[in-house]
UniProtKB/TrEMBL annotation:
This is BBSome complex member BBS1. Residues 23-276 form the Bardet-Biedl syndrome 1 N-terminal domain. The keyword Membrane applies. It is found in: Cell projection, Cilium membrane; Cytoplasm, Cytoskeleton, Microtubule organizing center, Centrosome, Centriolar satellite. It comes from Cebus imitator.
Length: 593
């Protein structure tokens, strides 16, 4: 590359193994004093001599003193001041006349400055917007001295808070003044007409009627008042105007204006809108979960970078294809197109000093730089076809040349997801029974859900009733909890009217003693009498059966018998650990039900 210095640069972001690197370090200047972003970079043969130059819309240090710079190799060839901060730069062919040299378009403020052979050629200004009627009426009253400056300020502030349309520059300047300066400002400007001007936020090019590389192209502008304008390349009149729900910040187009085209606009509300030819409003909408930081079209896929440190792939109809998570925040994005190999990939500059190159979701290459990259541009520079130009956050300039023998292999630079993750599953074909069942669920989905809920509630009710019945009847002579392994056996002895009731309580655990148990008797006091209906149980050693005796006196002279419930409880708890039923009178002992 004749126009680019081939000197080596220490620490210019070369990969650790220079022999295995796919890039040649052509130039690195950390003090180049270039502060810009990817939309303000363009490569073009501006003079038709086969020598491609780099066009830079430079913001200047701290956003001061914006300038238009043209670089030939590593050196600045020409430099001119700009009236406002640049928003985008693009090169395009305006006409078919020979010699075929591209024009340079630079969007800055409300104007597009067109250069031919690096000389000013045409200035296009956005059409003025109609002022707010209330604002116009207030300035008319001020012109006739019907309201004082203080009242004018209060009314303008009220309009600014409630109206959807922003105020004019004249009104905004008036609201920033001190009280002592307002009267002089009103006297100076009250006779002037109010003008409301919008500004350009983004710009790109669209082929007019041919898809050739050197075909005539139209300029597509995105404005602050939520509109897209398509300009005629010769007369610079507005060919088409489209409205958007929000302010566009990134644009991608495909097709030809006279035939068919698709236009994708990423907006400040976090959505991407797709428009087609003859459509005044968006046809499709892609809703993102975060704000977009970049938009690149790779073949028929829209690749979007978001503030969630991730890349997303979408179709033109809004279907999400894939997502790749980045190790750091995305600062800038651009397209890498290698014509000799038919390769198109997306480049993403990250905040950790890396530039990652992806084809779909497959990682092709990683370039490490000494400073975070804020703008990227790939194409023909000088006489080299595949040149990568990067500018850094500190104002540095990095130029790399892709080796002619370099071949990008998926996963060649870093381990990514396994190949099996991208393989499609062999899903069996849908049977007739499956289709019929699916149709039935669609048609009777509400009724099926209600029937399921009814059965579920009935099952829960039945389980609750059974549990309550078990608690009330106390039908469990063996503890069901592993924390209190107990076993209870009852025996009645005697002929009456006094009986001896013996309870055999056993700790069935292997090593843990049990302490703090209580025994309670529930019985009909009209039929039976017990000396103690409630007493404590001593320490239960594992494996031993403890006999606990008491006497029961029958009070009925008619031979009426009943049951006595025996409950074993833990101190401080109301729910029994286990229970048993004792038939009285009789000597059959415990009745298991």
């Amino acid at each position: 590359m004749a126009a680019v210095s081939s000197s080596d640069s220490d620490g210019c972001g070369a990969e650790s193994n220079e022999a295995n690197s796919k890039w040649l370090d052509a130039h690195y200047d950390p003090m180049a004093n270039i502060h810009t972003f990817s939309a303000c970079l363009a490569l073009a043969d501006l003079h038709g001599d086969g020598e491609y130059k780099l066009v830079v819309g430079d913001l200047g240090p701290g956003g001061q003193q914006p300038r238009l710079k043209v670089l030939k190799g590593p050196l600045v060839m020409t430099e001119s001041p700009l009236p406002a901060l640049p928003a985008a730069a693009a090169t395009f062919f305006m006409e078919q006349h020979e010699p075929r040299t591209p024009a340079l378009a630079l969007a800055s403020g409300p104007c597009v400055y067109v250069y031919k052979n690096l000389r000013p050629y045409f200035k296009f200004s956005l059409p003025q917007l109609p002022p707010n009627p209330l604002e116009q009426d207030l300035w008319n009253q001020a012109k006739e001295d019907q309201i004082d400056p203080l009242t004018l300020k209060e009314m303008l502030e009220s309009i600014r808070e409630t109206a959807e349309e922003p105020l004019s520059v004249q009104s905004l300047s008036f609201l920033q003044l001190e009280l002592s300066e307002m009267e002089a400002f009103v006297n100076q400007h009250k006779s002037k007409s109010i003008k409301r001007q919008t500004v350009i936020t983004t710009m790109t090019t669209l082929k007019k009627n041919l898809a050739d590389e050197d075909a005539v192209s139209c300029l597509v502008l995105g404005t602050e008042n939520k509109e897209l304008l398509v300009l005629d390349p010769e007369a610079f009149t507005i060919l088409a105007k489209m409205s958007l729900p929000s302010v566009p910040v990134f644009l991608e187009v495909s097709g030809q204006f006279d035939v068919e085209f698709r236009l994708a606009a990423a907006c400040r509300n976090g959505n991407i809108y797709i428009l087609r030819r003859d459509s005044k409003h968006p046809k499709y909408c892609i809703e993102l979960s975060a704000q977009p930081v970049g938009l690149v079209r790779v073949h028929k896929i829209l690749v979007v970078g978001s503030t969630q440190d991730s890349l997303h792939g979408f179709t033109h109809k809004g279907k999400k294809l894939w997502t790749v998570q980045m190790p750091a925040a995305i600062l800038t994005m651009n397209l890498l197109e290698q014509h000799s190999r038919g390769l198109q990939a997306v480049m993403a500059g990250l905040a950790n000093g890396e530039v990652r190159i992806y084809r779909d979701k497959a990682l092709l290459n990683v370039i490490r730089t000494p400073d975070a990259v804020t703008s990227l541009c790939f194409g023909r520079y000088g006489r080299e076809d595949n040149t990568l130009i990067m500018t850094t956050r500190g104002g540095g300039l990095i130029i790399k040349i892709l080796k002619r023998t370099a071949v990008f292999v998926e996963g060649g630079s870093e381990l990514g997801p396994p190949p099996a993750q991208a393989m499609k599953l062999n899903v069996p074909r849908k049977t007739r029974l499956y289709v019929d069942q699916t149709l039935r669920e669609r048609e009777a989905g509400t009724a099926m859900h209600r029937a399921f809920q009814t059965d579920l509630y009935l099952l829960r009710l039945r389980a609750a009733r059974t549990y309550l019945q078990a608690l009330e009847s106390s039908l469990s002579p063996v503890s069901a909890t592993a924390r209190e392994p107990l076993k209870l056996h009852a025996m009645v002895q005697g002929l009456g009217p006094t009986f001896k009731l013996t309870l055999h309580l056993q700790n069935t655990s292997t090593a843990r003693p049990i302490l703090g148990l209580l025994i309670c008797f529930l019985y009909n006091e009209a039929l039976y009498a017990l000396p103690r209906a409630f007493f404590k149980v001593p320490l239960l050693v594992p494996g031993l059966s403890y006999p606990l005796e008491t006497f029961v006196e029958s009070l009925s002279n008619k031979g009426i018998s009943d049951i006595i419930k025996v409950l074993v409880l833990r101190e401080g708890q109301s729910a029994p650990l286990l229970s048993a039923h004792v038939n009285m009178p009789g000597s059959e002992g415990l009745v298991a039900t």
